[in-house]
Amino acid sequence: MKNLGMFLLGGTLLLGAAPLAAQNSVDVLGGTQPANTTGCAVNPQCIPATWSTTSNAGADITAAIVKNFVFAQHGGASLTDFPTATSGNICLADTRDLSGTTLFAVIATNCQGAGGVALLLIRDSAATAPSGIPVFTISTVDGSFLRNTVGFNTSTGVSTFQIRINVAAAVAPANPTGQHNCPNSQAVPAYVGPGTANYTPNESLCLPAGAGQAVEPSMTVDSQGTIYVESIRGVPGGLDLWRWNKTADGGPNANGTLRFKYEGQPDCGIFVTTFCTTSGLAPGGGDGDVAVNAPDPLHMYIPNLAVVSLAAAEVTGSHSTNRADTFTTPNVAAAGVPFDDRMWLDALDDPNHVYMEYHDFGTTSQIFVQRSNDGGQTYIDVVGTAVVDATTAASVGPPTGNIAGQIKVDRSSTGSHGNLYQIFVGPDNPMDNLKNSTNFINAVYVGVASGVSLTSHTLSFTVYKIFTCGAGSTCPSGAGLGNLFPALAVDNFGNVYAVWSDNRDIYYSYSTTHGTSWSPAIKVTQNTAQAGKSNVFPWVAADANGHVAIAWYGADQIGNSNMVSTTDTHWNVFVAETVNGHAITPVFTLSQATDHVNHTGQISTGGLLGSSDRSLADFFQIAIDPTNHLINIAYADNHAGTSVTYFTRQKKPTGGIVGGSCAGHRADGEGDEPGKKGGSAHFRFHHDDCNQEPDTEDFSDPGSGTDFHSTKVTSATFDDVAHSVTIAGLGVNNGAQVAFTIVAVDSSLVPPGLFSITLSDGYTNSGHLLDGSIKLH
To answer: Would you place residue 620 in the very low, low, confident or very high pLDDT band (cuts 50, 70, 90)?
Structure first.
């Protein structure tokens, strides 16, 4: 979700490259000392401080600043919040005291206006704060130490003891895993853990020290096994991107770690290009996502890589045809609807079609979908298709709205190939919506577009409800389902999988009917060590036939993630995996993927308006390598200072994964049954889950004047117990458009077979076969 605290007003641009600097620190000169020992430059105990690379005219301090701090009221939102004693001293402002949305640049300007020589900003992640004085962020734990333990005079705001902001110490560019193209100075020292029973040693991905942070990692693996990881810095810091390709970058190390190549910033960021300096446009970095197509014969059979990045109110799109070594000039107006938020991508298994979903952030909470036919450079092949219909909008529009997860494309070899699935959570009904509370985001929905044509410039979605906690319910946890983000996956056989969190447990449901009906919700954390504890930010990936992996951040404490202890709550990445994901009772195996605690304290699920710790931002992603079925994970980690992106992957594939050719159903039938008004009626139908060709259904009853032909099949459901198939869709009866439902029963298993048809214009007919046959495979 868009982080207003991290972006600038549209007229403020990043015009020059920020120098790279290592971690600064703060010492207390007298009195009780802080407990931190990581990132200390001078004393053995200190407070880590992250410099805002857009402050102090883009230069980190070159000499230590020794002054008292002066505490600002109300987070420093106004100049009058800074006492007279601020002049010549260091400002201390706590973002937890802000009552509304305030740009960090405004707080810095107010500090400078009051005569402050530097600003310490209390928050749990880095900040972009363009200003003429140096700005540093410190954690809320350390901020509370300065406010409450070191203390200040309540009348003057002046601290009891002086503090010293130290010059950053150089950070060695060590890359023990063989990562390459890395900057000489990095945001945090390189880290390689010991690994776990099932996952390789966790490795930090190299990041320029001036980046500030690398959070909300997105990732994808193409059909050739190339791994791409992308993360955001916040506007206007842009994105960072890493790649591992076995041929280009070298095979895995002996311990299983990978030799990632740092590919810089596809949307410019601090690595300023001619485009950025001459266009007068700021790069993005508010949100980001990546997607890959199939191998492209026009580009040496390298799969296309599409990337999007969010600026303050617009989406930037670009793509690469050489495995991220170079990108096209960013298109800074990729979205067709202005003032948008949280775009997600997915790509078709052809060389160039990419789908982008995003929110209308400003007015309606509508979800829009666009399509690119040029690899993600422009999204004008389909523009601004709305997912939420008018009926559903009454439940999930204003005032509460909805939270949209990633769009997914069905890339299976079944009849559902090309289907689109868009998951979102929102209130169950209009009455719950009127409560205007995230606690009443109590239902999970999916928009389904089936029978998608690449020659049509329009899409049509039908919304189905996956799950609800019940009307008027805040769900078992009392926190609703808006715990960032619901997620979807589609396996190689067209089965669809959904996951979500109620802040206490992780839930799962699957559909074998292309999203039109869903299994009862399954509590993935039930009967595990994580049951009932705080579990948030789920993500899901699937391949083969029912191979599903679900990952999330799990705490060692019970309680709402926004309110748990800031010092005694420890988080890790957990993965639940199954090889029979669409069985009546899927069997999941739980593993811990992190080989160290990746975060301590709270995790905010409030997104833009969240008031607790947002240092990990709002999500992380996993992906399954289609060449070997290994689970790959990119996650955010701040155990050693600023939040950066880490990577780990499964050591070996799980046994029992079912692959092979399509295991879908097929239905064929042709024959006659009694006509409604005498005589006979003739039918013919064909449906094949494994054939991408259009299905055909025809029916004629001359005695009743009925002559029907299908134009689109939206669903086909097989009942292996009743030996029947139900096919639904759209068609024409004597040229007039109608909806239809056909039910057919196998002739050999339930002789002589049964055929029934219902049309939306009122015609129905059903009867046993007079001749012909129906065969279900």
So the answer is: very high
d(CA 758, CA 743): 9
Judge contact between 616 and 638, C-beta under 8 A: yes
Pair 309, 292: CB distance under 8 Å: no
* Dist CA 196 CA 256 (whole Å): 12
Both tokens of residue 205? 């991905």
Among the ranges given (425-434, 502-511, 521-530, 600-609), the one the predictor scored with the smallest mean pLDDT = 600-609
Tokens 């895995």 locate to: 252
Residue 51 is inside which H or E element, if any? strand 47-51
Candidates 591, 607, 594, 601; CA nearest to 646 is: 594
User: Which helix (H) or strand (E) element contains residue 563?
Assistant: none
Measured distance CA(322)–CA(243) in Å, rounded: 11
Report CA dihedral (602, 607, 610, 615) to the nearest 10 degrees.
40
Q: Are 275 and 329 in contact, with CB atoms under 8 Å apart?
A: yes
As a whole number of angstroms, the distance between CA 168 and CA 87 comes to 24
Compute the average pLDDT of residues 764-775. 94
Q: What is the β-pairing status of strands 367-372 and 382-386?
A: antiparallel
Flag the least confident range among 17-31, 396-410, 720-734, 751-765.
17-31
* pLDDT above 70 for 690: no
* Backbone dihedral angles phi then psi of residue 155, each to the nearest 5 degrees: -85, -45
* Dihedrals phi, psi of 210, to nearest 5 degrees: -75, 0
Closest CA to 530 of 509, 565, 561: 561
Structure-token pair, residue 417: 């190939």
Instruction: Identify the residue whose tokens are 């990577």.
Output: 647
Please state, as a whole number, how many other Cβ atoms lie within 10 Å of the Cβ of residue 509: 18
Give per-residue pLDDT as tens, 244-287.
Answer: 999 999 999 999 999 999 998 888 644 445 555 555 454 678 89
Backbone angles phi, psi at 4, to 5 degrees: -60, -30
Per-residue confidence (pLDDT) for residue 360, from 0 to 100? 83
Secondary structure string (H, E, C) spanning 120-181: EEECCCCCCCCCCCCEEEECHHHHHHHHHHHCECCCCCEEEEEEEEECCCCCCCCCCCCCEC
